[in-house]
Design brief:
By secondary structure, this protein is of the alpha+beta class. 43% of the residues lie in helices and 27% in strands. A hairpin with a 5-residue loop joins strand 6 (151-156) and strand 7. Helix 10 packs antiparallel against helix 11 (302-326), helix 10 (251-297) packs across helix 12 and helix 13 (375-391) runs antiparallel to helix 15. The structure holds adenosine-5'-diphosphate and magnesium ion. InterPro entries: HATPase_C_sf (IPR036890), HATPase_dom (IPR003594), His_kinase_dom (IPR005467), HisK_dim/P_dom (IPR003661), HisK_dim/P_sf (IPR036097), PAS (IPR000014), PAS-assoc_C (IPR000700), PAS-like_dom_sf (IPR035965). Residues 275-478 form the Histidine kinase domain.
C-alpha cells in the first residue's frame, strides 16, 4: 500500500518519487533554465516524453548551456529566453523538421527577482495539419461559393430576409452584399411574378421539401430586369429549416431562344399571310361593290350597311390578331383562359384550313380552368400545332381542337386525320430543322416544346400512319 493515497501524511520521499514519475511521463517536454555565474543560460531540468525522444533528459543536459544543447536554436528563440528571464510569460511556436511545437516560458520569481524559468513544449503538428486542412477547405468553399459565377443564397423558411448571399448574387441584382441581407426573395422579383415566389414560400412553410426549379424576371436595384433561373432545395442551416438556392443568369440564353422563337413566328405569319391577304381582299371587294351600288342608286339600303359592317369587322379581327401576335412580347405570366386564345388562333388559321380543304371542329369542356401563361407564346404554340395538323391533310379532312381538364392539368388537344408520323420519326419531333415540308422551317415544334416546358407543361404525341396524329398540350391549372 502506498502512502498518500489511502490516508496518512505522505512523506517527502513519496512526493519526490511521485513528482519524478509524473514529470518523466508527461507527454510534453518540461524544462527549466537559469543563469550561471558567467551570465549564461544553463538547463537545470529537462523531462517528459519529448525530452526522452530527443535525448534531452536532465541527466544528459543538466548544467549545459542552452546554445550548446539547442544548436539549431534561432536568434528569435534566444530573445524569448531572455525576455522570459526579464519576468514575462511568453508563448511561441517553433519547428523541428516537419514537426511543430508550441512552448510556454514562465519565470519563477523569488524576492522580486527571476531565479529560474520553467518551460513547457507541446507538439502541435497534428493540430497545425488540421488547421491547414480547415483553411484549405475554407479556401475551396470560398472559390466554390464566393467567387463562383452562379448566385448562391440561404434563407430561413419562415423568415423574410436572406441569411447568406454570395457576392455574385449581389452583383446580379446590383446591390452590395449588406444591402441584400435586408431584402427578401419577393423584393428581387418583378411585381407580376411575386405571386410565384409567395406560393413557393408557403409551400415550404407547409413542409414541402422537394427541389424546385423555375425561371423568373429579377428586378435589379436600378430597375432593370435580368432573366434568371433558380434551383432551390430545402435543408437546415444552424438547426433551422432553410432554403438553399442557386441562381443563374439566363438573359443571354433567353435572348437567343427568343430570336429563334420570333423568326419561327415570322415565318409562320409569312406563310399565313398569303391566305389572310386573300381573306381580306374578298370582303374589300364586296365593300367596294356595295359602295358603288349605293353610289349609283343614291338611296339608303339598310341591309347593305349590315353586310358592310360585318365584313369590316372580320377584316379588323384578322388584322388585329396578326398585330397582337407580332407585337413585342409582354414578359409577364398572367392568368388566362385557353378557349379565347384558341378562338383567336382559329380565326387566323381558318383561311389556311379552307385552302387545304380542312374543317376545324372545336369541342371545349364547359368552364375549363385558366392557366398561368405568357399569352402570345401560348398562342404561338397553338398556331404551330393547328397549322401542322392542317398541313398533315393535303387532301382535306377535319382537325379536332379540344380543351378538357385532367386533375390539376388542362389538356389542349389537336387531332388530325392526316398522314401521321412513322414511329421511327416520332423521336425526331422537336429537333431543330427537322421538317418534311418543302418550305417548312422545322423549328415550330422545337419552339413549342420549349415554350410549354417554360410553362411547366408537356406536349405529347400519338400518331398512326395514314390515320392521323394527336398532339396534346398539358399545362398546370393556374
Ligand atoms: P415545320 O412545320 O416547319 O415542318 P415543325 O417543327 O412544326 O416544322 O414540324 C416538324 C415536322 O414534324 C413536320 O415537318 C412534320 O413532318 C412533322 N409533323 C408535325 N406535326 C405533324 C402532324 N400533325 N402530322 C404529321 N406530321 C407532323
Ligand atoms: Mg410547323
Amino acid at each position: 500500500m502506498q502512502a498518500g493515497i489511502y490516508g496518512g501524511k505522505p512523506s517527502i520521499d513519496w512526493y519526490k518519487d511521485e513528482l519524478r514519475r509524473t514529470v518523466e511521463n508527461l507527454h510534453n517536454h518540461i524544462f527549466k533554465y537559469k543563469r550561471d555565474e558567467d551570465g549564461q543560460f544553463v538547463f537545470t531540468l529537462s523531462e517528459g516524453k519529448l525530452a526522452r525522444e530527443f535525448g534531452l533528459t536532465t541527466d544528459r543536459i543538466s548544467g549545459k548551456r542552452l546554445q550548446e544543447v539547442l544548436q539549431l536554436c534561432s536568434e528569435d528563440i534566444m530573445t524569448m529566453y531572455e525576455k522570459a528571464y526579464e519576468g514575462h510569460v511568453l508563448e511561441y511556436e517553433s519547428a523541428m523538421g516537419e514537426r511543430i511545437f508550441t512552448t510556454t516560458l514562465s519565470p519563477i520569481v523569488e524576492q522580486g527577482r527571476v531565479v529560474e524559468v520553467v518551460g513547457s513544449s507541446t507538439e502541435i503538428t497534428e493540430r497545425k495539419r488540421m488547421e491547414r486542412e480547415l483553411q484549405e477547405a475554407e479556401e475551396l468553399y470560398r472559390s466554390l461559393v464566393e467567387d463562383t459565377l452562379v448566385g448562391v443564397y440561404i434563407a430561413y423558411v419562415n423568415e423574410h430576409s436572406f441569411v447568406y448571399v454570395n457576392p455574385r448574387m449581389a452583383e446580379m441584382f446590383g446591390y452590395t452584399q449588406e444591402d441584400m441581407m435586408r431584402l427578401g426573395a419577393v423584393d428581387l422579383v418583378v411585381p407580376e411574378e411575386r405571386e410565384i415566389v409567395l406560393k413557393n414560400q408557403s409551400r415550404r412553410c407547409k413542409g414541402d421539401r422537394s427541389p424546385i426549379r423555375y425561371q423568373f424576371h429579377g428586378l435589379r436595384s436600378d430597375g432593370s430586369i435580368v432573366h434568371l433561373e433558380v434551383l432551390q432545395k430545402t435543408t437546415s442551416y444552424k438547426g433551422k429549416p432553410a432554403v438553399i438556392g442557386i441562381l443563374q443568369d439566363i438573359t443571354e440564353r433567353k435572348r437567343a431562344e427568343e430570336m429563334v422563337r420570333k423568326s419561327e413566328l415570322l415565318s409562320v405569319i409569312g406563310q399565313l399571310a398569303a391566305g389572310v391577304a386573300h381573306e381580306i381582299r374578298n370582303p374589300l371587294t364586296s365593300l367596294k361593290g356595295f359602295l358603288q351600288l349605293m353610289y349609283s342608286q343614291q338611296q339608303e339600303k339598310q341591309q347593305y350597311f349590315h353586310i358592310m359592317v360585318s365584313e369590316l369587322n372580320r377584316i379588323e379581327k384578322i388584322i388585329s390578331e396578326f398585330l397582337v401576335l407580332a407585337k413585342p412580347q409582354d414578359i409577364a405570366f398572367k392568368e388566362r383562359d385557353v378557349v379565347p386564345m384558341l378562338e383567336h388562333i382559329i380565326v387566323l388559321a381558318e383561311t389556311h384550313a379552307v385552302m387545304h380543304n380542312v374543317r376545324i371542329v372545336t369541342r371545349y369542356e364547359p368552364d375549363p380552368p385558366s392557366v398561368m401563361c405568357e399569352e402570345n407564346q401560348l398562342k404561338q404554340v397553338f398556331l404551330n400545332l393547328l397549322k401542322n395538323a392542317i398541313e398533315a391533310m393535303p387532301n382535306g379532312g377535319e382537325v379536332h381542337v379540344g380543351v378538357r381538364r385532367e386533375g390539376d392539368t388542362v389538356v389542349i388537344s389537336f387531332r388530325d386525320q392526316g398522314c401521321g408520323i412513322p414511329e421511327d420519326r416520332l423521336a425526331r419531333l422537336g429537333e431543330p430543322f427537322y421538317t418534311t415540308k418543302e418550305n417548312g422551317t422545322g423549328l415550330g415544334l422545337m419552339v413549342s416544346y420549349r415554350i410549354i416546358h417554360n410553362h411547366g407543361g408537356t406536349i405529347s404525341v400519338t400518331s398512326r400512319e395514314q390515320q392521323g396524329s394527336t398532339f396534346e398540350v398539358r399545362l398546370p391549372v393556374g
